[in-house]
Specification:
- By secondary structure, this protein is an alpha+beta fold.
- It has one domain: Protein Transport Mog1p, Chain A.
- The protein contains four helices and nine strands.
- Strands 1-2-3-4-5-9-8-7-6 form a nine-stranded antiparallel sheet, with helices on both faces.
- Strand 2 and strand 3 form a beta hairpin.
- The two termini are about 15 Å apart.
Length: about 190
Amino acid sequence: MTRIVLAFFILYFLCEYVWTRFSKQRRHPYRQSNHLCLCQKAGCWTMRQPKKWKSIWLMYKMGDTLEKSQTLMYVNVEALKENNIANLDQFIDLDIKNLKKNFSDIAILDDQQLLVNYKDIAKMKHLSGNTFGNFEARAYMADAKNGISFVMSSKSKEGFESCLNPFNSLVTSYSNVVDNLEVEAGDK
């Protein structure tokens, strides 16, 4: 599972690098100690994997620290069959049910669907509430094996609105690089 998430982020940054390499302004990913940084039209983002988050890589605006960042983005991948989930709608319903159980006043609004790689659909939700404490956008996708949830969480409405475009870019750039992966004999 960690390999899928890491492969996704590597592919995202590689595509973003190729796209920005030939634009007028030079923007590219680079490493800074244990962080991977990316500069794009919407600003610069830092990506890192905190020890307590095991298999999830967090993205936050460059210049912020993880602890003080107003807005975070991350991707979570869950095996559908292992969790007895049959399809995308059931995956979304389970997530929403868990959120409502923990935050009784949470407001959940359906948002636009995003076309991902000209073939897949990501269903979007916007969340907020007093006990919830954040403004969030969530995009959900599923393939035959996994449910993927993209999350952008902000402590303020202004931070939420200013990061919607980078979040949508993250979601629409998704590609599962292991779908057509073939391992030959002798490969590890």
